[in-house]
Design a protein that fits this description.
Shape: globular
Order of helices and strands: EHEHHEHEHEEEHEHHHHH
Bound molecules: nicotinamide-adenine-dinucleotide
Largest sheet: 8 strands, mixed
Distance between the termini: 41 Å
Number of strands: 8
CATH architecture of the largest domain: 3-Layer(aba) Sandwich
Radius of gyration: 19 Å
CATH class of the largest domain: Alpha Beta
Structural class: alpha/beta
Number of domains: 2
Strand content: 5-15%
Strand order of the largest sheet: 3-2-1-4-5-6-7-8
CATH topology of the largest domain: Rossmann fold
Length: 286
């Protein structure tokens, strides 16, 4: 199957970048977000990002005009997905919200439309009972910032058809990414599982008073050569996203994840990381 038309659901941090990356490569893309203010913000972000590429000499005026003509911000989900060959879901990391989105999507798309979720941790079989054609359902996990990071984890479930895995893998490659296949479902896939192990140990060391989070970051950056320590990285990916994941684990296991109280306090105070100007570190708010 060939992908010609892509739809992205959710215009937050990830959705807008996944959509723009697809338009750059050069697919025709519709993007939908439930909130009108987010749709407006996506338009502003797209304009600023592309103007910046011209100013830096990375793209020509002509290239940018082409990208803009392929990138459509749409006001309803029905309109956004009606001709889509591939729909990539990138809404908030909440099972109830994603389940409702997949249920609605399934009633709107063609029988053969591929439905992919960009969830950080939830495997696609979580949603297989609410879609009409689970053989077209799988995980397509991008990394932040999705315009820059190469990795896309393509994770199949037992319900996913081989052809769908191959098509999505080829699409990821065609859009400049380096896909990897995850052959069996596992929460968090590959890279985030490794990261989870690092986060767990980092939070333990800070929680138990062995060091500050700033020094823990310094240790990883200067001793292990990581581009960012775990807390600085968490500011980039969103403290609220980590807290959503912690909440889900807490509900599922009854065991309070390490650092839970600190993350709850940070979310309550609006310290969400770079996007809010403050997280573990302070940033100039854009
Ligand atoms: N932030 C990261 O580093 C990262 C990396 C990889 C994957 N992800 C995954 O990508 C997904 C999105 O994360 P994000 O960081 O972009 O979140 P975000 O909070 O920045 O954006 C989520 C968007 O979803 C929208 N939304 C909520 N309900 C909706 C609905 N019913 N229909 C349409 N839009 C809806 C919200 O208005 C919001 O704009 C999550 O599943 C997350 O786990 C995030």
């Amino acid at each position: 199957m060939e992908i010609k038309k892509v739809a992205v659901i959710g215009g937050g941090l990830m959705g807008r970048q996944i959509a723009l990356n697809s338009a750059i490569y050069p697919y025709d893309v519709n993007i939908f977000d439930l909130k009108p203010e987010v749709r407006e913000a996506v338009q502003k972000w797209e304009d600023e990002y592309l103007a910046g590429r011209i100013a830096k000499g990375r793209m020509s005026e002509e290239q940018v005009a082409g990208i803009k003509s392929r990138f459509h911000i749409i006001d309803t989900m029905a309109e956004a997905v009606k001709d889509a060959d591939l729909v990539i879901e990138a809404v908030v990391e909440r099972k109830d919200v994603k389940t409702a989105v997949f249920q609605e999507l399934s009633g709107l798309v063609r029988e053969d439309t591929i439905l992919a979720t960009n969830s950080s941790y939830m495997v696609s079989s979580t949603f297989k009972d609410v879609v009409k054609n689970p053989s077209r359902l799988l995980n397509m996990h991008y990394f932040n910032p999705a315009l820059v990071m190469k990795l896309v984890e393509v994770c199949r479930g037992e319900h996913t058809a081989d052809e769908v895995v191959d098509t999505v893998y080829a699409f990821a490659e065609a859009t400049g990414k380096t896909p990897v296949r995850v052959e069996k479902e596992i929460d968090g896939f590959l890279a985030n599982r490794i990261l989870s192990a690092i986060y767990g140990e980092a939070r333990k060391l800070v929680d138990e008073g062995y060091c500050t989070y700033q020094d823990l970051d310094k240790a990883c950056e200067n001793g292990l050569g990581h581009p960012m320590g775990p807390f600085r990285l968490n500011d980039l990916t969103g403290v609220d996203l980590t807290f959503d994941i912690m909440n889900r684990r807490y509900q599922e296991t009854g065991v309070k994840p390490r650092g839970y109280d600190l993350y709850k306090q940070m979310v309550d105070e609006g310290r969400l990381g770079r996007k809010s100007g403050k997280g573990f570190y302070d940033y100039e708010k854009k």
